[in-house]
Amino acid sequence: MPTLGVNIDHVATLRQARRTVEPDPVAAATLVELAGADGITVHLREDRRHIQDRDVHLLRQTLRTHLNLEMAATDDMVAIALAVKPDYVTLVPERREEVTTEGGLDVLAQVDRLQGVVATLQGADIPVSLFIDPSPLQIEAAARTQAAYIELHTGAYAEARRPDDRDRQLQALIQGTSLAQGLGLRVNAGHGLTYWNTHAVASIAGMEELNIGHSIISRAVLVGLERAVMDMKQIITQASCQQQPQASA
């Protein structure tokens, strides 16, 4: 059964809207854990638009589950990760003008560079995941970096409006998961997942963790954080009984 990693960036976004001290994402992480989440995800962006260095350090000290630190593959961010020692790092693309992460990391165009980053982090016992589109070429390139994980970008699936488009994108995720496992990679997924579209992704055989943020925090505004997390956890638990078969080779 996939585990649930809850991204709490949007709690920090609300705090930074007024440059004040609340709501505190560290306090939110405690409630998320109490509600049954299996891990906490935060993206420490270079422009610090939401999560701050203070948040990452306090989360590392207080979490009882695991900390997934999303970050760009820069020297400055690698230094922070080496100091904080998150349970694992997810390398993501990052552009200052984007609202949120758009598309997966282009591993194919920077295999040598990423091999060095992966070696540095994993040499310090920090497993690395690469956030990529479910493209066979990108998955094969990810395997060449020796990263422990990939996180499949589910945006195209989540944004598909026509049933046939959605089914095609789901098949790409199923086939990508199977290919990655065959190459020795462990597989997570995330981006754009909601209470209406998560079940099918959680049903993919071999899927280890789903990282979900915006949908959970949005529901929390109306029903409370603990209820929002428990509702998503229930969807994932139910999906584990209906896993999709592995894609044929």
Characterization of this structure:
The chain has 249 residues and is of the alpha/beta class. It has a domain at 3-126 and 194-242: TIM Barrel. It is 47% helix and 16% strand. Strands 1-2-3-4-5-6-7-8 form an eight-stranded parallel β-barrel, surrounded by eight helices. Strand 3, helix 4 (75-84) and strand 4 form a beta-alpha-beta unit. Helix 2 (25-34) packs parallel to helix 3 (53-62) and helix 10 (214-223) crosses helix 11 (225-239). The chain is globular, with a radius of gyration of 17 Å.
Fourth-level CATH superfamily of the domain at 3-126 and 194-242? Aldolase class I
Order of helices and strands: EHHEHEHEHEHEHHEHEHH
The structure class reads: alpha/beta
**Helix content estimate:** 40-55%
**Proportion of residues in β-strands:** 15-25%
Distance between the terminal alpha carbons, to the nearest Å? Answer: 23 Å
Count of helices? Answer: 11
Gross morphology: globular
Instruction: Report the strand count.
Output: 8
Q: What is the level 1 CATH name of the domain at 3-126 and 194-242?
A: Alpha Beta
Q: Can you name the CATH architecture of the domain at 3-126 and 194-242?
A: Alpha-Beta Barrel
For the biggest β-sheet, the strand order reads: 1-2-3-4-5-6-7-8
Q: Using the CA coordinates, give the radius of gyration.
A: 17 Å
Task: Note poorly predicted spans.
Answer: none
